[in-house]
Each structure stands twice: as structure tokens, then as C-alpha cells.
Write a structure and sequence with these properties.
The complex is a heterodimer of chains A (538) and B (1009). By secondary structure, chain A is mostly helical. Chain A has helices at 2-19, 41-57, 62-68, 90-94, 102-128, 133-157, 177-191, 209-221, 223-227, 232-243, 293-297, 320-323, 357-360, 398-401, 430-442, 453-461, 475-486, 492-498, 523-528; strands spanning 271-275, 337-338, 340-341, 352-356, 372-376, 378-379, 406-407, 425-429. In chain A, helix 8 (209-221) runs antiparallel to helix 10 and helix 8 (209-221) runs parallel beside helix 15. The longest helix of chain A is centred in the N-terminal third of the chain and has 27 residues, at 102-128. Chain B contains nine helices and 52 strands. The chains are: A mainly alpha (538), B mainly beta (1009).
């Protein structure tokens, strides 16, 4: 019995001892928690990284599609049902998009993410960094990432919600474009003093003072459209801030094309702010950017010519209306296009494809459809809906795949092992400053620094063409010059709207609804933020 | 005379059978002769019933007229037992002539049921628990506990395909969470959360499925999906016994997709003025589905066990070897399980120590890129040969996403080795005043070692930028890259659980009042994902596969990045609980059970780590009422009602509630790619468990002298505060989502289980049991006050060509989980192009994703049926088991993607698409056209066995049997098989990922020595 009591006592003690043990917290020892990251200068750089990754995200994909395929610059028709993709591309061409349009949705998400990542990095570094110059500059640069993202957001969607505080989940309605404009303007001006004036590898891919000037110039050039108030003198002033800094110059004719090659980077003389792409860039959470132009633009028959590690499907081309601007045979910028009969890089060996008669032309009706057929690839300028007009379909044969002139400005990257390319993509280029200033003066701004629109344009043409200098210049010429200079650089929709050409007819498009100058607040946005109201017209 | 009804623990029947067989060895003691007759519940005499005296080695058997004689003394207890019968005990008084009525245990009204932290007799239960005995488990070459139970338990929806390396999806009473964790909580031999792969089916003694909250709430925040208690063999007092059971199985594919053969496809093309490319058409007629399959897949299983015991201890041990080839080339599974269970009494039998150790070692080969292989095997053109003339694999890489499926298998390897060790040391102390103290210490260790290798052929041919994987829905496909000159991936992880559970039990009967009270404490710590992953590329040779990463030279491939795996894989969790349960009954007539568990979990937000999970159940055994004494229809009748709250704390990372940063990739900084680190997870200090409240009403009855018994359950299960990743506007939270509570789901249903013995003669019996379950699942809300983006989320994108952005399902309140949401097919227009209703009910050939979608049926079945028949004739027995699923829909995306008449010169199409015109460029579009009924009835198993009770002096019992699984299926479903996964977020979607279903022929033998 005594033994038994001992047992009771023992087991009771065990129970009590264990019952007292209710410590439930498990310390996190294998993750980056706020207490341990970021704490030092290299960690602060790393913590800013997500904002730059987010900015890289959709710039050359969704954003490019929105700015290019909605204009006469680019078209992406279906080929035998391929690339129809539920009207994703067609709606952009016809200006028939709805709030469910996939690219409107993904462009919205891209820019929201870039803004959100900037807010987040600002919050983290704002708390973690010790006060001082480093902090001022880091926060100023992040505010610029947010500002350029908001600029793109405003350019596409007009009225967007102003969310600037990380961790605040309150739903906000959109803010009118004029207010967004003011917000960006104030943000950029607020950031300016903290930004670096060094233009070098150290600041490449990050915002400098000149990025701020260029963004302000772009805003003021479009201010009349964005806000109803012309600001052409302000545009000229900020262009001058870039010009007189002497930090940039125009690439000579011999290196114009190389400016966009996979090898481009900090040594490029014209890049004021660019988005550095690297196919080897690590990726997670869909924050990586896709620089995929060769996939969309290089005909599959030229996989060998460009030594690509993959077979591109190449559905995208330009429209004859846009290509018509390339009317100067001496212009180096013509070389950014693949047109007509195709030759290998030696210039003489034809690019040939062996198929069948039926494979060459799906509408071939002869009985020898299976007979082999070899031909030299010839790209044709006109977009012909050979298979189906309502489905925007060229067909799925060799003829169809050779339809359309192709842009290879962002030259295919033979060194990549994937579809992703190493070409950095400029957002602001020095030649844009030159043409913006010329345009702003033509639109009523005052000439400064003894530069006239004509002198400015001729200074650019001197390094683009061997044709003689112009004797006069007007807005139409500026428009055409911008088409030549900025093809595939995400500016054409912005230019078309500013020049009043966005409601025109090109290709198969006849829609002229002016409310389509901005895209609808997409479904993905209203689902996540019920406070958002639709944009006018949608 | 006093008649005591008592049930013996499971397995006692075999034990008594042994005693019976050994009876000639025993000497009869001198005492008065007791005689009498054993009858069945209809009054007919029963032969072969063993009669023994409790505590003595004395056994006899009733004769053909039911008569028996046995010498016994006053005070002895006679035990009458027989297979499928409840044991009857009779205390010997003055009477020497006894009539005993045996009752069938068909629906086990008299069994012992394993509940959490104790056992209970079935008749005193107030909760919904279904018990499945080993003889009722599914037969077949099965390694997975889920498949053993398929169709056997009303309310348990189990779906499995033919893949030996995958476990079945198990859902009890409808999904009650949007979380990944839908599977019931498994408790093996009282070890909570134990890994079921550690258990060999032959070692199982019983499986108890705890369904309502009164039963499960004792497992608190892990019990919301139901609890399945598995009990394995234990040694028993008596001479040692050795059993061997083994089988060999042969599997054949039961059905294939009917794609066109070379002749059909050529005919189709020429009929439509089209033709193959000469690059494809090599005059072959290849059946690609056959090429990737084995003609026959063999499996075999061997289980050797021995057990025995003395008065103060027992042992049981077994070893099991299982090998199963998958029907797809490259897939097989080998598993070895060793198990030891020891019990030892001490201190005058007041203390019992027990030690259980089980180790399961598995080697699984999966078909590399399985789902891509399956997709290619139906797309690849039959006119292309498998091999070129020079013996190399035929490929035509100019096509997009077009790869020789056999080359995919044979140029890669995918292997995983698992080891699960479970150890448990338990002490039970009998204390005075009816108190018992239990202490249980458990340790579980799972290790995995995974290797993948894609040889140089992959790098050379498949880095085409169009090599997408084909993940099971709802995952969206992504591009795969296979490095250069071979790429390898290896990972190894270890999970450990340490569990301490301790409780007091007080069992007291005071006059008519019986009380059983349990008070306990549980502490558990889990470490998950302790290990690492690495990958590399650029090998000089292909032969070494993934076994020698050191031979590679990844540095020569500038763009190559090592894949270190999931950054959140390691975590540590702690669960601490206090629990109490009270069972009270008055005269075994009015029964009450109340329990509460206070659970703490480290995985929750710091504001909400502790919660209470109460449950209460009442039952009324009407049988005991006076007014029932005069009827003779029912021999037992019980009405039950219960209500309780359970939770779900699994299915998400342990650090979900905390702000965690991780590596997001790299970005350009000062001339280099620098690592970018930022939040990968948002903070949610208020994250708490999901709560599932279940009300259950049940009726148990036994009628017609035990010839008919049954259970009816009606339940209403409501989950609130569902843990769900809410999409958040990325402008607020760039990672785009936060794990939070909110949203609710409802499951209401009715279950019926019936067992009957329509025929019983001395030579022939037929027992039959049927179970039916109906469940209605509905997501009742998907909102969180802060995060409105939970509702109306379209998902499941199979990404067939030209269908970018098309989704099949929608998460929406008021709709069931998995609700189909797609285009509304409206036949073909005048030019033969498929058209659809648009949002304004007009017709369109270019419908819009989302805007033109309609609700189009639910993948949730309306009725699940299992029907078992056992026929015994002398030494033969025949078991026939049908299983049926009714009223569900399947989205046959596989069929849609093979409806491409316009692409038929490049990819194969279904024979069914022969009537389609190539002009119909919409033919393949996911729409209501491809939603089909998933109703089916399957003859799941038929087994014929022959039993020999004694063979010579050494063999006690032999059973030989032959079995066929999946003998036939009756269905209108046009895919390979209508048994499409019902688990997860994308139930009922057939998306080019179906592992072929097989028909198995099995020959087995069980021997007891």
C-alpha cells in the first residue's frame, strides 16, 4: 500500500509538473524576422531590392503590350487559334477591351505591386535605417521607384488609388488624374534633393536627379492632356536641367543599334533611367521581369540565324501604317526591322524553310499537298486575316508566320539559355529629352539655351541618318521622328494620345471612343478593393 | 441464472479459435457437468460455437444440434464465441442446463470502440463512430490506409488513381476547409498524428472513424476533418502463434483514352483536305498510351507475424514486405515494415509497460514528369514511331510542347526513399478508487531522400522554352528548364514529432450510475523540414544519374542557378493541451458524454494561441425502457445527439502569423546581381484556428433477432473563421495575399448504414451491408472584414493551348467547393463553329473569359454508396463489393484539349472528335460541352476464398483466395475513369493528369501456425 501511495505521489507530481508546462511560443530561428533583418548597409541595399524587382516585373511584358498593341506600332494576331488567347491581344487592337481584359488586369497588378513594394521598402528602411545621408538617399530613390510606377499607373488608368502606407489595409477609391499628377510631381520634387547626381555604374538602374528631371519633363509635356493645364515651359526647364548637366550625350550612328543589344548597360551614353534585365536574375513570387522580345518578334525560321536557345513563336509584328514612318533609306534606325527576303548574317545565304506545299499554304488545293516544298523566308508587311476575320486569324502555315515586319531593336540574346534576354530597357533616354524639348517649344514653350526645335531635331538626326539636315520641323515631323526613335520603347500610346492620333483608324480598328485613352479599372482591382468605382465610359 | 453480456477486445475470436484448436491438449478438470443448447437469434441451433471457461484452459464446441457439454464449477464464467458473433458470457450458478442465444456482430453494436484516450463499448457511445474490421477492409494490392477504407464508411469520400506512389484523397463528410489540409487526423495506437505509411494493412486490428464532434473534440484543434483511429495487433495471453499472409497481384490497364490510330487520323485529315507533315508521318501506327505502360504490373506482399503472451506480458511482432509496380513505366513502390509490440506487467500487475516500435521503409520510383508524359501520350501523333531507324528516340521538336513521351520517361529518373520510425513507450498504473494513470511518450521520425535526374537528352532537346510541366490542378503550369548535359536535383528532409500524453481515468459504478472521467495533458513538438535541397547541372556522363552531384560542373553554365528549394520548409511547432472528458450513464439507459479540450498552438497569431473545444453528447437506449420489453422487433435501439466544436490547425506553415522576409531573387545593384530580400509573408497577429461546429443526431438499431442492424446519422457541420489566403491588393501588400480567418463553409448530410443476414443455414450464410451517404457542401461566406478579395475567385487553369486565362472553377459564397464556372456551350453556328451564350444571352463565337461564364454544375457527389455481400458456403466464402458515386459532375478538360480538329495534323485527337470540322476553331474551348456526369457504379472487388481449419498437426488454419479489383465500372463518363480526385481545391477536374486506373487480379494465402 505504501508503495502504491508512492506511485500515486509520483504520477501526481509528473502530471502537475507537466501541467505547469504551458509555454507555447516557439522562437523563429530559421527565418528573416524584423528583429534580425535588415540591420547593416548591405542589408539595406538588399531590402530595397524587392522594389526594383517589382518595377522590372511587367515593364517589358504587360506594360509593353498595353502601350504598343493598342496603337499602330504593334499587332499580335492569332495563327490557327494559337495566340488568340481569348481576345487578349485583339481587344487591344480593336480598342474593344473590357474590365475583364487580361492584360489590363495584369498591368494593373504589375504597377500595384511595384507601388506596394516601394511602400513596403520605404516602411522597412524608414524604420530600420539610422538617420543620415544614406537613409535620405535610399528613401529618395525608393520614392522615385514609386513615382515612376505611379506615372505609368496614371498614364494607363488615369484615376488610381493613392496608397502610400504599408500595412494599412483600408480600401481607398481612385483619385482623379489631376490629383495623382500633383502627387507624383510633389513626390519627385521632394525626392530630388536626396538623389545622387552621379551617373555611373554605381547609380545605374537607380534613380538619379536626372531621372527626376526626365520624369518631370515627361509629365509636363503631357500635362495638357493629363490635367488640362499646359506646362510646356516647365517641360523645357526640366529638359534643360538634363541637357546642361552634360552627363549625357547622343550615341553616334555607329553605336545606335548597340545601345539596345544584350550587352548594353551603364556605358550607354543616352540611358537616363533604365530597367536592367538579366536572364540569370533570380526570381521568386513572380517578381522577376520577363524581357522576352525575341520570343514575340523573331520568326521561328530564324532561330538559327540568331543562334537562339529556343524556337520563338513570333506572333507579333508592326503595322504598315507605323512602318511607313521609316521612309529614309539612310536612317540607321531602319535596321531595327526584319523585312522582306531574309538572309543569314553573312547577308547572302538565304534563310530557307523546307515544308510541304500544304504546310506552306494551308489553302493549297492541289493533290500533291504532301510534296516537299522549300522556299526562302520573305516577311510581308500587310496583315491579312486569311483564316478567320472574326477570330483575327492569319492561319497556321508558313505564309501566316511570315506575315508582318518584325522589330529586333532589343536584339535577340544568343547567350541566354532561356527565353529571357539580357537587354536593359530604357525608360528615359537622352534623345527623348531632345525631342521632348523640341516638341514642348513647338507646342508653345520658350526656346532656351539657344536651342530651337529645328536645331534639336537636327542634332538627333545627325547621329541617326546620313541624309542632309532638315530646313524646318513641325509637330507632325516630331511625331514621325518619335516613331522612328522610340519604336518598342513603351511610348507610342502616350505619343499617339498627345498628338491626337489615338482615335484614328489603323489596321482593322475603327473604334474612335475617346474614353479609351485610359483603360478601365480592371476586375482584379475592384474584386480586391470594392471602394474602387469604374472609370468613365466603362 | 444471470446473463452477462460483455464484449471482448478485438481479435479475441481468433484467440478463442486457437483455444478451440488446441483443446485436445488440455486436460479436463473434475466438476459438475454443464450442458445446454446454443441457438441463433431466430432460435435455430448453432453448431461450431466454442464454449470455454474464463481463466481456464478448457474449451469445447457445440455440436450440429447446438448441444454442448462442459465440466464447470459454480462461479465459473462460460464464454460462448464464434466468428461474426458477439461473445456471450454466462456465470454458472446452480443451473446446469443452459440455453444460450448468440447474436451477430454484423454491425458491431457490442464491440469495443477506440475513442481518444480510452475505449468505450459501442452500446454506450453517444457519438458517431464507424468501426471497420480487417475482414471488411478492401482487398487488393493496397499500401495505403485510405484505399483500404474506400466505400466502407458512410460519409468518407475517398478517391484514388492507379499511382502506387500517391495516397488517396480522403474527405470526411465534405470538405470543411479551404486549406490544403482536408484529410482526417490519424491516431495510430493512441499516437496522435502518426504517419499511416508506417502501418501494414495486415497488422491492422480495427479502424475507428470518429465522425461527429462529440467523438473528435477530444483532439481539439486538429480534429475538424474527423479522426481515424487505427489499432494494430497486440500479443495475447496464450501459446504463441505465427501467421503468414501473402499475395501476388497482377494489374492491367482497365481503360484507355480512345484517341485516333494512324488509320483513323489519316482518314480524318484526308477527309478534311489536310495532311501530316512529312516530319511526323513515318508510316507508323503507334499506340502511345500503350508505349508508356507496362503490359502487366506485378505486385506482391508478404506479412509474417508472431505473437504470444504469458500472464504478465505479451509480445507481437511482424515484418511486411510490399512491392508494387505502377502500370506506368518507371513507377514502382517497395515498402518494408517491421513492427514490435511488447507489454509487460509489474508490481503485482498494477503497472503495465508497453513498448511499440514500428519502422517503415519505402522506396518509390515515380514516372518522371508523369503528367507531361500522360499529356504527350494522348497528343503524340500515331503516325510517328517511337524510335528512329538508328534506334534513337523519334522527336519532332518543331512542334510546340510536343515531346516523345517514352523518351521523357527513359531519359530521366525520379526516386524518393522514405523512412518512418514510430516509437511509443506507455505506462499504465492501476490506482485505488477505480483510478488509472496513463503516461505515453511517443517519437516519430520521418525522413525522405529524393533524387531527380534529367539526362543530357533533356537539355539538348527539351530546353525549348515550351516545355511546361502539367501540375495537378489548381496549380498553374510553369516552364521547366533542364540545364545542360544533365541536371540533377536532390533533397533530404527529416520531420520529427515528440509527444507526451498523460491522463487519469476514473471509472466507477455506483449503483445504477456509471461514471468514467478522463483528465489529461498533452505536449507535442514537431520539427518539420529539417534538411536541404540542392541541384546541379553539366555532367560528363549520363550514367551516374542523381547519385553523384560532385561530378557536375555547374559553374561552366553561367546562367545556371542552384535550386535550394522552399525557403519556408523548416519549421518548429508546439501544441499543448489540457483535456477532460466525462461519461455518465444511468442504468445504461440514459447516457451523457461531455468533453473539453484546451488547445494551444504556436502556429497561431500571438493574440490567439489558446482555444477551447467543447463537446457534448447524449444518448437514450430505448431498448432498456419498459415499453420496449414487449416488442420483439428490435433487440437494440438507441437515439443519440451530439454537438461540439473542433478546430483545424494544420495545412499552413507554422510561421504563417509572423512577418517573415525571404529571398525574392536578384536585382542589378552597382554592377552586380544582388540578392533582394523582402517580406514573403505578412504578419497576422490575430490568426487563429478554424472552428468547425458539428451537430449530429444518430439512431442505432438491431432488429429481427440480429438479422438486421443499422445506423442513421444526420449532421450539420459548420466551419467558421476559415483559414484562407486572402488575395490582397498588391498595392497594399506586394506579395498579394495574407493568411487570415474569415469565411465559412457548411456541410449537411445524412448517412445510413444497414447490415443484414438474409440467409443463415448451417452451411450457408449470406450477409450484406450497404452504406449510403449524402452530403451537401456549400461555401457560405468568403469574406474577411479587411480583405474582401476572397469571393468570386476563378481558378483551375489547365492551360491547354489557346486557352490562356480560361478557368474551370470559382470560389464563391453560396456555391459548393469546386463549383464549375465556364462558358455556356450553345452548339455550332451555321458555319460549323462552336458558339457560346454571352452574358446578355446572345450567341458569340468569341466569348469573353469570366464575363460570359456561367455556373455549370458541382463536382461534389450527391450520394456515395458502398455495398458489401459476403456469402459463405461450408469452407468457401465469396465477397462481392460494389461502390457507387452519384450526382457529381466532372470537368473533362482532357477531352476538351483533345478536341482540336484544326490541329489534327500536329497533335492527335479523340476518335469522338471525328465528326468535328477543322473549321471549328473553337472546338476545344473549355465550356459546358465538356462537363459530364461523374456517376458510376464499380464492382470494386470480388474475392473468393477457401478456408481449411486444420491441416496436419502443425497448421492451424489456411485460407487461400483469389480476388479481382475494379472488375467493371458502369458509367457514362467518357474519360479513362470517373474516379477523379475529389480532394483538394480542384475536385472533379480531369486535366490530362489521370494516372491510368487498373484492374488487379490477386492470389493470396493466409496461414496460421
Amino acid at each position: 500500500m505504501k508503495k502504491l501511495l508512492n506511485y500515486i505521489g509520483l504520477s501526481g507530481a509528473i502530471v502537475l509538473g507537466m501541467t505547469a508546462c504551458h509555454k507555447i511560443d516557439v522562437p523563429v530561428t530559421t527565418q528573416l524576422i524584423p528583429e534580425i533583418f535588415p540591420q547593416n548597409s548591405s542589408q539595406f541595399v538588399q531590402a530595397a531590392g524587392p522594389a526594383y524587382m517589382a518595377l522590372r516585373g511587367g515593364y517589358s511584358l504587360e506594360y509593353h503590350f498595353m502601350q504598343s498593341l493598342s496603337t499602330d506600332e504593334g499587332i499580335l494576331p492569332a495563327r490557327g487559334g494559337n495566340w488568340y488567347d481569348n481576345r487578349n491581344y485583339i481587344d487591344l487592337h480593336f480598342h474593344s477591351w473590357t474590365k475583364d481584359h487580361p492584360f489590363s488586369n495584369s498591368a494593373w497588378v504589375y504597377l500595384s505591386k511595384a507601388i506596394g513594394a516601394s511602400n513596403q521598402a520605404l516602411s522597412i528602411l524608414g524604420k530600420a535605417m539610422p538617420d543620415g545621408n544614406d537613409k535620405v538617399m535610399a528613401l529618395a530613390e525608393l520614392k522615385m521607384v514609386r513615382a515612376v510606377s505611379y506615372f505609368m499607373f496614371m498614364d494607363l488608368f488615369g484615376n488610381v488609388p493613392l496608397d502610400t502606407v504599408y500595412g494599412d489595409y483600408t480600401a481607398r477609391d481612385k483619385t482623379p488624374r489631376t490629383e495623382v499628377f500633383k502627387f507624383i510631381e510633389a513626390e519627385v520634387k521632394g525626392a530630388l534633393p536626396g538623389l545622387s547626381n552621379v551617373v555611373s555604374t554605381a547609380t545605374y538602374g537607380r534613380a538619379t536627379k536626372y531621372t527626376a528631371f526626365a520624369l518631370l519633363a515627361k509629365m509636363y509635356l503631357n500635362a495638357e492632356y493629363y490635367t488640362g493645364t499646359p506646362r510646356y515651359n516647365d517641360c523645357v526647364a526640366y529638359c534643360d536641367s538634363v541637357i546642361s548637366s552634360g552627363k549625357y550625350s547622343l550615341e553616334p550612328i555607329g553605336t545606335y543599334l548597340q545601345m539596345f543589344y544584350p550587352t548594353n548597360g551603364p556605358s550607354t551614353k543616352e540611358f537616363i533611367f533604365s530597367i536592367p534585365y538579366d536572364p540569370a536574375a533570380g526570381t521568386a513570387l513572380n517578381l522577376n521581369g520577363y524581357m522576352y522580345h525575341a520570343r514575340y518578334d523573331v520568326p521561328r525560321s530564324e532561330t538559327g540565324k540568331f543562334n537562339l536557345p529556343f524556337t520563338p513563336s513570333a506572333p507579333r509584328s508592326t503595322l504598315p501604317e507605323y512602318y511607313a514612318n521609316f521612309n529614309d533609306a539612310n536612317d540607321v534606325r531602319n535596321k531595327q526591322w526584319l523585312t522582306g527576303l531574309q538572309f543569314m548574317n553573312d547577308g547572302t545565304t538565304p534563310v530557307t524553310v523546307t515544308t510541304t506545299k500544304k504546310g506552306y499554304d494551308q489553302f493549297y488545293t492541289g493533290s500533291d499537298g504532301n510534296a516537299p516544298y522549300t522556299y526562302q523566308v520573305e516577311l510581308t508587311p500587310n496583315i491579312v486575316l486569311r483564316q478567320s476575320v472574326p477570330l483575327f486569324d492569319l492561319g497556321n502555315d508558313e505564309i501566316a508566320w511570315n506575315i508582318g515586319y518584325r522589330n529586333i531593336k532589343f536584339y535577340p540574346d544568343a547567350t541566354s539559355t532561356s527565353r529571357n534576354q539580357n537587354n536593359d530597357v530604357p525608360m528615359f533616354r537622352y534623345s527623348d529629352i531632345i525631342l521632348m524639348k523640341a516638341e514642348a517649344i513647338l507646342r508653345g514653350g520658350n526656346a532656351t539655351l539657344s536651342q530651337t526645335p529645328l536645331s534639336l531635331v537636327n542634332s538627333l538626326r545627325a547621329v541617326r541618318t546620313t541624309s542632309p539636315a532638315l530646313g524646318s520641323v513641325n509637330l507632325d515631323f516630331i511625331y514621325a521622328e518619335r516613331c522612328r526613335e522610340f519604336a518598342w520603347e513603351c511610348w507610342h500610346r502616350n505619343d499617339m494620345i498627345r498628338f491626337g492620333k489615338y482615335e484614328g483608324a489603323w489596321g482593322f480598328k475603327t473604334n474612335n471612343e475617346t474614353y479609351r485613352r485610359i483603360f478601365p479599372i480592371p476586375t482584379v482591382a475592384t474584386t480586391l478593393n470594392p471602394a474602387l468605382t469604374p472609370n468613365p465610359g466603362y | 441464472m444471470r446473463l452477462l453480456c460483455r464484449s471482448l477486445p478485438n481479435g479475441a475470436g481468433i484467440h478463442l479459435l486457437l483455444l478451440l484448436l488446441l483443446s485436445p491438449l488440455y486436460m479436463l478438470a473434475q466438476s459438475q457437468e454443464i450442458s445446454g443448447t446454443v441457438k441463433d437469434s431466430t432460435g435455430r441451433p448453432m453448431a461450431g460455437i466454442s464454449v470455454s471457461i474464463k481463466g481456464k484452459n478448457l474449451v469445447t464446441v457445440s455440436k450440429s444440434d447446438g448441444k454442448f457439454n462442459i465440466p464447470a464449477q459454480t462461479g465459473d464464467v462460460l464464454v460462448f464465441s464464434g466468428i461474426y458473433l458477439e461473445d456471450q458470457e454466462v456465470l454458472i450458478g446452480s443451473k446446469t442446463n443452459l440455453d444460450v442465444t448468440m447474436r451477430t456482430s454484423a454491425l458491431t453494436m457490442g464491440d469495443v470502440v477506440v475513442v481518444g484516450y480510452g475505449k468505450s463499448s459501442r452500446k454506450n457511445l453517444t457519438s458517431a463512430i464507424t468501426t471497420v474490421k480487417p475482414e471488411d477492409l478492401n482487398r487488393g494490392a493496397i499500401s495505403d490506409v485510405g484505399q483500404l477504407l474506400q466505400g466502407k464508411v458512410p460519409g468518407l469520400n475517398i478517391t484514388a488513381n492507379g499511382d502506387p506512389t500517391k495516397t488517396a484523397a480522403v474527405i470526411l463528410r465534405g470538405a470543411s476547409t479551404l486549406n490544403s489540409s482536408q484529410s482526417p487526423f490519424y491516431v495510430i495506437d493512441n499516437i496522435p498524428g502518426a504517419d499511416i505509411s508506417a502501418i501494414a494493412p495486415d497488422d491492422i486490428v480495427s479502424i475507428d472513424v470518429l465522425k461527429d464532434a462529440a467523438a473528435t473534440a477530444i483532439y481539439g484543434n486538429r480534429a475538424a476533418n474527423g479522426v481515424i483511429m487505427i489499432t494494430t495487433k497486440r500479443g495475447r495471453k496464450g501459446p504463441g502463434q505465427v501467421t503468414y499472409s501473402g499475395y501476388v497481384g497482377l494489374e492491367k490497364v482497365s481503360n484507355s483514352l480512345d484517341v485516333m490510330d494512324a488509320g483513323q487520323l489519316s482518314g480524318f485529315l484526308s477527309g478534311n483536305g489536310s495532311s501530316f507533315s512529312p516530319n511526323d508521318d513515318k508510316g507508323a501506327n503507334t499506340d502511345w498510351q500503350k508505349e508508356i505502360q507496362r503490359d502487366n504490373a506485378f505486385s506482391h506482399n508478404h506479412n509474417l507475424s508472431f505473437s504470444g503472451g504469458s500472464d504478465h506480458g505479451s509480445y507481437s511482432a511482424s515484418i511486411n514486405y510490399f512491392k508494387k509496380e505502377g502500370i506506368l513505366l518507371g513507377s514502382d513502390l517497395t515498402r518494408i515494415i517491421a513492427r514490435l509490440a511488447l507489454e509487460q506487467y509489474a508490481l503485482n500487475d498494477k503497472v503495465k509497460f508497453s513498448l511499440n516500435v514500428s519502422n517503415s521503409n519505402t522506396n518509390a520510383n515515380a514516372t518522371p514528369n508523369r503528367n507531361v508524359v500522360l499529356l504527350q501520350s494522348v497528343r503524340y501523333l500515331p503516325v510517328s514511331p517511337v524510335y528512329n531507324a538508328n534506334g534513337s528516340y523519334f522527336e519532332n521538336l518543331t512542334g510546340t510542347g510536343y515531346f516523345n513521351p517514352l523518351a521523357l520517361i527513359n531519359h530521366a529518373a525520379d526516386n524518393t526513399k522514405y523512412n518512418t520510425l514510430i516509437g511509443n513507450f506507455a505506462t499504465q498504473v492501476k490506482l485505488p478508487f477505480g483510478l488509472t494513470y496513463d503516461l505515453s511518450l511517443s517519437y516519430q521520425n520521418n525522413t525522405s531522400l529524393h533524387g531527380e535526374f534529367y539526362d543530357s537528352y533533356y537539355g539538348k532537346n527539351y530546353n525549348t522554352a515550351t516545355f511546361y510541366n502539367n501540375p495537378d490542378p489548381p496549380l498553374v503550369h510553369s516552364i521547366l528548364n533542364f540545364g545542360s548535359n544533365g541536371s540533377a536535383l536532390r533533397n533530404t528532409y527529416q520531420n520529427t514529432n515528440k509527444i507526451l500524453e498523460t491522463f487519469f481515468t476514473w471509472n466507477r459504478k455506483i449503483n445504477d450510475h456509471s461514471i468514467n472521467a478522463v483528465l489529461g495533458y498533452s505536449w507535442q513538438e514537431n520539427v518539420v523540414g529539417d534538411g536541404f535541397q540542392s541541384s546541379t547541372t553539366n555532367f560528363p556522363v549520363d550514367n551516374v544519374s542523381y547519385n553523384n552531384l560532385a561530378l557536375s560542373n555547374p559553374y561552366a553554365i553561367g546562367s545556371y542557378r542552384v535550386n535550394f528549394g522552399d525557403p519556408n520548409i523548416y519549421y518548429k511547432t508546439r501544441l499543448i493541451s489540457d483535456f477532460a472528458r466525462l461519461n455518465y450513464n444511468y442504468k445504461e439507459k440514459y447516457l451523457l458524454q461531455a468533453s473539453v479540450r484546451r488547445d494551444g498552438g504556436s502556429v497561431f497569431g500571438s493574440n490567439d494561441q489558446w482555444g477551447y473545444f467543447p463537446a457534448v453528447g447524449v444518448a437514450w437506449r430505448m431498448m432498456e425502457e419498459d415499453f420496449m420489453k414487449n416488442q420483439n422487433i428490435f433487440s437494440d435501439l438507441k437515439l443519440r445527439a451530439s454537438y461540439g466544436v473542433t478546430g483545424n490547425s494544420t495545412g499552413f506553415s507554422a510561421y504563417t502569423a509572423q512577418l517573415i522576409s525571404g529571398s525574392l531573387g536578384t536585382f542589378y545593384s552597382n554592377g552586380a546581381q544582388v540578392g533582394a530580400y523582402g517580406p514573403t509573408q505578412a504578419e497576422n497577429l490575430n490568426l487563429q484556428w478554424e472552428k468547425t461546429k458539428t451537430a449530429n443526431i444518430g439512431l442505432d438499431f438491431t432488429a429481427l433477432h440480429g438479422l438486421l442492424s443499422g445506423t442513421i446519422e444526420v449532421y450539420d457541420k459548420k466551419t467558421t473563421g476559415m483559414i484562407y489566403t486572402y488575395d490582397v491588393d498588391p498595392i497594399l501588400l506586394p506579395i498579394g495575399g495574407i493568411v487570415a480567418n474569415g469565411g465559412s463553409m457548411s456541410n449537411k448530410g445524412i448517412e445510413l448504414g444497414l447490415s443484414a443476414t438474409p440467409v443463415r443455414t448451417s452451411n450457408f450464410t449470406w450477409t450484406t451491408s450497404v452504406n449510403l451517404a449524402h452530403n451537401k457542401n456549400e461555401i457560405t461566406s468568403l469574406t474577411n472584414p479587411l480583405f474582401p478579395g476572397g469571393d468570386s475567385i476563378r481558378y483551375t487553369q489547365p492551360e491547354g493551348g489557346g486557352q490562356t486565362g480560361s478557368t474551370l472553377q470559382i470560389r464563391k459564397s453560396g456555391r459548393p467547393l469546386g463549383q464549375f464556372f465556364t462558358l455556356d456551350y450553345a452548339g455550332k453556328n451555321a458555319t460549323g463553329v462552336s458558339q457560346y451564350y454571352n452574358a446578355s444571352k446572345g450567341l458569340t463565337v468569341s466569348p469573353a473569359i469570366g464575363a460570359d461564364y456561367v455556373y455549370a454544375g458541382s463536382p461534389q457527389p450527391k450520394l456515395l454508396v458502398g455495398w458489401t455481400n459476403t456469402l459463405k458456403y461450408k469452407n468457401f466464402d465469396l465477397n462481392v463489393f460494389f461502390r457507387g458515386v452519384f450526382g457529381n459532375k466532372i470537368f473533362n478538360a482532357t477531352r476538351a484539349d483533345l478536341f482540336r480538329p484544326a490541329d489534327a495534323q500536329r497533335t492527335n485527337i479523340l476518335a469522338d472528335a471525328a465528326g468535328e470540322s477543322p473549321a471549328d476553331i473553337n472546338a476545344y474551348k473549355y465550356s459546358t460541352r465538356f462537363i459530364e456526369s461523374g456517376t458510376y457504379v464499380r464492382l470494386d472487388n470480388a474475392t473468393i476464398g477457401y478456408n481449411i481449419d486444420k491441416l496436419g498437426n502443425y497448421v492451424k488454419r489456411i485460407r487461400i483466395y483469389a480476388s479481382v479489383n475494379n472488375a467493371f465500372v458502369i458509367t457514362n463518363y467518357s474519360g479513362i475513369d470517373p474516379e477523379i480526385n475529389q480532394g483538394g481545391m480542384s475536385p472533379g477536374v480531369d486535366a490530362n493528369n489521370f494516372y491510368p486506373k487498373t484492374r488487379t487480379f490477386l492470389f493470396g494465402v493466409n496461414v496460421a501456425l
